[in-house]
Specification:
This protein is an alpha+beta fold. It is built from five helices and three strands; from the N terminus they run ααββαβαα. Helix 1 packs antiparallel against helix 2 and helix 1 packs across helix 3. The protein is elongated. This is DNA polymerase-3 subunit gamma/tau.
Length: 139
């Protein structure tokens, strides 16, 4: 028996698919969060609760620090798969932006006097109340 070889026909599945948009992402994000929550992936869920933005067919995930960056890298394939399945989008790029927390320049407030001075700078009416009622910060 001779087998007849037929030419291989390639079918593109991305022609009819949409591009990812911020609106589509916001529609499917609750389902994706629920999926991660049901699997007990709380660290990944914390990343999903941060800023996710779509810019020109690119999903930008903002993370805080290197630990979250590593977690985001590990969850990347699953997240892309879930977004593509739920939203019906074609290919898109995925990038991670690491935002480092900026250490505050202000000194630590240890004593009651320091705390009171700080609060009176923020809320000047507090100083008037302390004078009116004869309140002192030191014991």
């Amino acid at each position: 028996m001779e087998e007849e070889k037929k030419p291989i026909e390639f079918v593109s599945t991305t022609e009819n698919q949409k591009s990812i948009t911020q609106e589509l992402l916001e529609q499917v994000l609750p389902f994706i969060k629920e999926q991660f929550k049901s699997e007990g992936k709380n660290l990944e869920l914390a990343i999903l609760n941060q800023a996710l933005q779509v810019q020109e067919n690119e999903l930008v995930v903002e993370v805080m620090g290197h630990v979250q960056e590593e977690i985001a890298q590990k969850m990347k394939p699953e997240l892309i798969r879930l977004i593509r399945e739920r939203a019906g989008v074609g290919q898109f790029t995925f990038s991670i932006v690491t935002k480092e927390e900026i250490a505050t320049q202000s000194s630590k407030l240890y004593t009651d006097s320091d705390k009171f001075r700080f609060l009176t700078e923020k809320h000047p009416a507090l100083k008037e109340f302390s004078k009116r009622f004869g309140l002192e910060t030191d014991y």
